[in-house]
Structures
1.
Amino acid sequence: MADRTSGEDDFFRSSENPVKLKIENFADEPAALTSAREVAAELGATAISAGVGNLLRTLVCAIKAKHIIDVGTGVGVSAGWLSLGLGEAGTITSIDLESEYQQTAKEILHDLDLAAPRLRLLAGRANQVLPKLTDAGYDFIFVDISQFDAPALLDDAARLLMQGGILVLNGALIGTDTAANELAGLIGENDEFAAALVPLGLGLVVATRL
């Protein structure tokens, strides 16, 4: 997520907040993903924190997810964390507008033994790619992009997720006029999901498809 506002809470701005430090240091991050985050910074891309990644891995393990959509590949940090909770037969379909980032992600994720056919990298806008994917074919979707059509994305998520599947959105607590903020509100109002707002990363919405 690239969107920021000058009025954002200190909890999200500061990397020195003791609560945040405890969360981020709770689980050890694989060296390949720490290096990937450094690569992201060099390229001007964004990457999820270790705390967010650890939560994603935990959720994937909890529901024994088999087929995941990662919206916002970047250099592969989120896909890498998701893969840590995925079984050997599981798959990740990762979408990003920047094919250059995806090539870097492909190389990084290879070090985590995540490659085709378990990994599918699709270049394009989320709102153009998601409608082409299989109905009720996925049990986990992670969204971490800054620009998209929020109502259309929620419709696609509801269609793509099987019952009991999980949708996680990053960026829900940053700004008041962002696509992520709009999507967070729509999820909270949608009867097809049971959702909770988590003050981790840039604000996560964790929602279960009913």
Note: The two ends are 27 Å apart (CA to CA).
2.
Amino acid sequence: MRAGRLSFLVPSLLLVSVGAVAQPAVTRPAPPLRPTPVKPADEITIYRDRNFSGPAVSIRQDEANLGLAWTVGSARVRGGTWELCERPRYQGACHTVWRDSSNLGQRRVQSVRPARSGTWRDLGGADVNRVVWTRSTIRVRGTPGLWAVRLCAERNRVRLQGARAYFTNGRFQNLQVPAQLASGACTGPLAFPTSRNISSVEVTAATVAVVTRARIRLEGR
């Protein structure tokens, strides 16, 4: 009787095993792929005239020699921070732009590149048109957190009597500045003990002669 039961069960087990192997595998369709979001490329457009008018050139990468026949009067920034240099291969005086600037003062620009880490960026400026000491306030848009600022002279040499940085918490710090700045020159870094949110910088400056016109530019990093 035991042998008979075994002979009856074995074919049944074989049939079950064969049936299990023979069934097709169930496959489910893969979920649709989601497109990877693309970050828009950083870009700056420089214009011949003020207020974003006249002939223009758009730049998205290093341009070592633009060969421009005109000076640059304004720039529109669509991402990133940019260095505008007066000579090819990023030589000569360089101006850092990180936001739209409707009046760059007809600046000579022959090379442009994205600013490197730690590069100074333009925070604003004030005209210096009198030979007597005049106090001007350069207001900083966006209250950026900065470790240092510096002052640069444009168009002509300027005399400096003092400067003071104001922070968004109502406090201030006096800045040690040289007695004079040559045209195109900047002070050394005027550092803060820690990163500070700047609201404005007050500068007392004068021209070197009655007919001289100059400008003070504030930069930060």
Note: The longest strand covers residues 190-207.
